[in-house]
């Protein structure tokens, strides 16, 4: 050994001590104690020495070649300490222990996973140039690393097919996708060694419907032989930021049910290579559906690099709230920039591009690195094979096993049959060369995703290794520099809202339709449905609604990142589905309500019930229809889709200024209020009036009310005050009392009910302060602001994906004219509405008893169509001392802590909010619940801001080729909830991470699933209606009926079966917020639930617990289910296959 080398080995030895410690800790972190071979001390010593030698070898190499890597290892030692703190006895960092005093953590956390939040605290986000792998580092090897265990390469051919983006779903299918499938049959059929994976069932099912039996048999044979694998098996590859878990699960059920029915297989691996950031809610659903592995790709480049350095790119992803390993799923994170060939064979894209044979000279695509691929020949095969092997080996060193996963594909690949030929034949020549040269210690072949994972698990278990565990999420994504993809959290907000409207009507209709079929079978007594009820047509409408909602969860749909024409296509689908589902809802309600079922007849052109609003087009907001009243009572039917008794305010538009509402069953008059319908901000209609009344709606019930014109002056009318600081104001309110006209108010405007009082600015009408009955007071100032984008000629600017605000940050919204403020007061609700040039803002307080009166409703109607490169935000500035921490929900399923970090640019501190965000300190919590997805941030302590709409003139270079300029008049709706926090509250529901409070959950439920109001045209007494109340009482407060979804008949296609999927979610809730006032529902800390009790008097003929997409039954739960009992742990979603009798 040369002296110099000896010296470096000695230096290596010194570092080795430090780094060995690190390695040991790394091992501990994986939970992989060195449990190898014989137990004797000598064999243990041998083992240790062997590993020591290996590590010295490795270190020597590292030291002599790469000082930078050693430095990062030293950094990771620091990080290891953080991890150990997390994972050791003190299972949370000391800071968060302080924040949680009084809320005892549940046991079993000693093996808790590392958290992404801590990785964020640790990373410098400095983005140094890594050389060939620009965002990474130089990877070195000696060449003998694979002598013992050969490198095993799985090349996985794939084609990423967006169900709509630049083209519509149908156009992509016609132009590209169907050719891919047709060629697949031929080309995979030619050679059994060839493989392919496919993800989007929306496309697959469309093609299936067109092909003959012979082709279908070929597909089944390819699946059976393992040449073709369906990965994830969802309807689409959904967005994970804006989608609600209802829709995420529904599209997975739709895909899995289709696969099961037509192909009889069950997906086992997840594939999410293009969604712009990744959520653990999705992984929870995948695991729950029976998948055991998954691949993700779009993760912040700095996180990827860090994980590559740690060799933790493969990890067990665990739910942060889970104290067990039940939710763990094996996750592979792709290490490089993209999922295309240049960024998947290894770290050097210039080299990897030469192995994308679709880019051979003369073909349509080229290599931007200017070195084209070469066809593989006898002359060049050796040189080409070694060049490729070098990339494979470098990539392999980022992982702990010598099994290597290499995707082969890109967007809409394998369309032409020649592409199949060039890829498969050239790669086969390379693989053959490897096979002929055992000294290279490499075995490469085409594989599916499951081929890879099976081999990986085999290799890991033979070494007794467990991958490290990780909790948290992968937002907000950046692909390069400071290009954070936080723009799409808000882009096209009109359709993000429409998405939730379809979701609500789909869920409500599914449940009512399932209940209707059950009632009909019971009514008939022979298991048959009622004749004349179009069950099959309705089921097809439901299926179409499911599929259109599913399609919209695609990562270019709900994200707002598709071309304008494609947005119109999606919008039209959502709109039509809403209309179609309403037909099913009305028709089901019709039969359920009839006292004399013999009177039922279905006439689509003359429906018995009409919705109380109409939507004119896919880009229009709903408009209330006007009910004509007379002295004859008119029936109004309200459906409560919630599993809770709801005290709701129902508002309908009527044609007279005096009306009474009575409960049709008891004749009891309802508390009601007549308000003006405004033609202009200060001009009330003289023809149309709004009648609002307080309704007590039992869970899942249909309640009938009679509305009658009353004698003049008998109804409670709202009273109005106008505040206007500008010129003279013309007010026309014939039927209403007006005060304070043109007179600036000296003091703040105020609204109050029994629970809460609020104060607003007399200049703007915007909220300033809140006080609870308990005495808790919080300053909460509402502001509106504009963001612009970067102004320099060569600077990157905001677009559909990216948020790149100008240096000046947000500018306070101002207008030269002072805004008009209108205050209304009445016995049902009071509100303050302010008219600004770009938006109308309303703050409303309902006069309701109980928890329903505790939240403050905020609504905005925004129109920024006159603007250029601007984004409008609503900001709450409070005195809640939350520091830099706040919480946002992930997919409406769980809350995730966020930390606003100054080392990150402003746009990186924005996160997705699909339904909730809160700030809290020791004494209080301020929760903003939302009815739509938006971007949210807390840029300074006490602040919370949401982006309402964005109008951007330019493309942001992510392939869309357009700005976002098709803005609509857009509505957004929120509930603001201020709550006391106490340290004494008993822990309920195993809360070890932060959850919404019980009141927040209930408020969110009413916000997302408000009652549906329908009216009966003509006289009420023509037919007798009786209310429908399927449940004796509300479900427990923390149990949410996600869906009751009728399943397709096994024999007869497109026909409802007797079975339904019952989906329940037991919510986790905060243990420090005392429910005040107490909700009427109950909750318990027992995990065991009796389903017959919950749904009494409904009877289940059979209940079988199953995986979340109903593909397999849960053995463990079989015994429980026989007794109709079930285990439902906090946070868990459970699925049951039930027969409703
Ligand atoms: Zn895509």
UniProtKB/TrEMBL annotation:
Molecular function, one GO term: carbohydrate binding
Catalytic activity of the protein: N(4)-{beta-D-GlcNAc-(1->2)-alpha-D-Man-(1->3)-[alpha-D-Man-(1->3)-[alpha-D-Man-(1->6)]-alpha-D-Man-(1->6)]-beta-D-Man-(1->4)-beta-D-GlcNAc-(1->4)-beta-D-GlcNAc}-L-asparaginyl-[protein] + 2 H2O = 2 alpha-D-mannopyranose + an N(4)-{beta-D-GlcNAc-(1->2)-alpha-D-Man-(1->3)-[alpha-D-Man-(1->6)]-beta-D-Man-(1->4)-beta-D-GlcNAc-(1->4)-beta-D-GlcNAc}-L-asparaginyl-[protein]
Cross-referenced Pfam families: Alpha-mann_mid, Glyco_hydro_38C, Glyco_hydro_38N
Keyword match Zinc: yes
GO cellular component annotations of the record: Golgi membrane
Cofactor requirements of the protein: Zn(2+)
The organism's place on the tree of life at top rank: Eukaryota
Keyword entries, A-Z: Disulfide bond, Glycosidase, Golgi apparatus, Hydrolase, Membrane, Metal-binding, Signal-anchor, Transmembrane, Transmembrane helix, Zinc
Membrane topology type: Single-pass type II membrane protein
Function statement: Catalyzes the first committed step in the biosynthesis of complex N-glycans. It controls conversion of high mannose to complex N-glycans; the final hydrolytic step in the N-glycan maturation pathway.
Similarity field: Belongs to the glycosyl hydrolase 38 family.
Name used for this protein in its record: Alpha-mannosidase
Species per Swiss-Prot/TrEMBL record: Cynoglossus semilaevis
